[in-house]
Amino acid sequence: MANLPRKLELFYDVLSPYSWLGFELLCRYQNIWNINLQLRPSFIPGILKDSGNKPPALVPRKGKYMMMDLQHLKNFYQVPIRIPKDFLTVILEKGSLNAMRFLTAVNMEKPEMLENVSRELWMRIWSRDEDITEPQSILAAAEKAGLSKEQAKSLLENSSTDKVKNKLKETTSAACNYGAFGLPTIVVHMDNKPCVIFGSDRMEMLAYLLDLF
Amino acid sequence: MANLPRKLELFYDVLSPYSWLGFELLCRYQNIWNINLQLRPSFIPGILKDSGNKPPALVPRKGKYMMMDLQHLKNFYQVPIRIPKDFLTVILEKGSLNAMRFLTAVNMEKPEMLENVSRELWMRIWSRDEDITEPQSILAAAEKAGLSKEQAKSLLENSSTDKVKNKLKETTSAACNYGAFGLPTIVVHMDNKPCVIFGSDRMEMLAYLLGELESLSLSIIKTDIPCPTVLPTCQTYH
């Protein structure tokens, strides 16, 4: 008798390149491992504020290190990451609020498109150094992902409703309730209790926890 | 013609449990990978101060997370880590200055003992929740590692000389010059330039950089089952 798939929640923000790595790795494994992957668009500034943590790039050596680390990881994991020219402005000033609200709307109305749209937003910000804050940027990503112009426009309108704004807050709160202090945060629902993993560098350990070795 | 072994420096502090994991993993692979592992006892508060970084445990959720993370990692990597009962006092108040000065002295006079003595200090603080700050604690670790009472006592005396204190400062500075903001910090001397890796969770990537992926076994735990490190077909990116 086959085991039931284990539920695995991935809390992520497209602002976070390490979220992209975790996302791609789990997407690759979702049909190989016995898991039910649930994508949970979240808002990283909300997580940082609630936990009292700070963006790593604020420590200059951490920022420099991240840029080097991402170059190696991009080759190793074959995810086409390219550091934005104005790295700090993109992360600390421009942000991703509109994009994450949009993904929240997608998740509420067309969840089967969430993976594709998330990927296209990451491709903009973290591969082609393109904007993800303006309406036309978000619509472009949505259409590239396979949504029609009308669907994309409708979802964009919904993004600014209280319903969607609150849903993003709820998801971010849920991550905080699991003890998140950053993203990506993965929650594996094991037999007796949830197991929380931070970052995209615990995949082998995750496989071990899922009894896959 | 065989390639020359690549020099790999491991900057570590016994106060850091993740340093212990990195240390054990590299010790397991030093005779399997074509590397020349050089242990570099360093002082983590010096690294944090110089880089403007803070101990992760100061963010409450990070501290809680670390305790859980270490439980999983201990099982996965089979390193007998046990969280000290008074975790925060051990890390933030008691510290490891005497221990790291002692290891510096060992490295200067009896470098062949550095691996064993480092391990015995980690076993005290991070496996048996024992002190590593008092002279008798350090002597006990040294003797357990194989040093004689006389050798241990002599090294302990040397630990408080300016020569040894300065050497610890120099090693810590060297890590800072490589851009370290915490420990463990691994510096791999690749063909053209040094490659700096932070933490103990980049071992598979390190194996990839060294061209040693084939010899990786179950992500570096002590079994012979081949590791599923090479990931399935990649997403096509447009």
From TrEMBL, chain A:
Q: Name one Pfam family in it.
A: DSBA
Q: Which CDD domains match?
A: DsbA_GSTK
SUPFAM superfamilies xrefs = Thioredoxin-like (SSF52833)
> Organism, per UniProt?
Monodelphis domestica (Gray short-tailed opossum)
GO MF, any single term? glutathione transferase activity
Q: Which GO terms describe its cellular component?
A: cytoplasm
Q: Give the Gene3D superfamilies listed for this entry.
A: Glutaredoxin
Look up keyword Iron and say if it applies. Answer: no
Chain ranges of the DSBA-like thioredoxin domain: 8-210
Q: Name the gene for this chain.
A: GSTK1
Enzyme nomenclature, EC number: 2.5.1.18
InterPro entries, alphabetized = DSBA-like_thioredoxin_dom, GST_Kappa/NadH, GSTK, HCCAis_GSTk, Thioredoxin-like_sf
Similarity comment = Belongs to the GST superfamily. Kappa family.
Q: GO biological process annotations for this chain's record?
A: glutathione metabolic process
The name this protein carries in UniProt is Glutathione S-transferase kappa
Q: Enumerate the UniProt keywords alphabetically.
A: Transferase
Automatic annotation (TrEMBL), chain B:
- The catalytic residues are 16 (nucleophile)
Q: What class of enzyme is it?
A: transferase
As recorded in UniProt, its EC number(s) are 2.5.1.18
Q: What residue intervals traverse the membrane?
A: none
> InterPro entries recorded for this chain?
DSBA-like_thioredoxin_dom, GST_Kappa/NadH, GSTK, HCCAis_GSTk, Thioredoxin-like_sf
List the catalytic activities from the record: RX + glutathione = an S-substituted glutathione + a halide anion + H(+)
Q: What is a single molecular function from GO for this protein?
A: glutathione transferase activity
Superkingdom, taxonomy of origin: Eukaryota
| One CC-aspect GO term | cytoplasm
Keywords from UniProt, A to Z, are:
Transferase
Q: What is this protein called?
A: Glutathione S-transferase kappa
Taxonomy of origin reads:
Eukaryota, Metazoa, Chordata, Craniata, Vertebrata
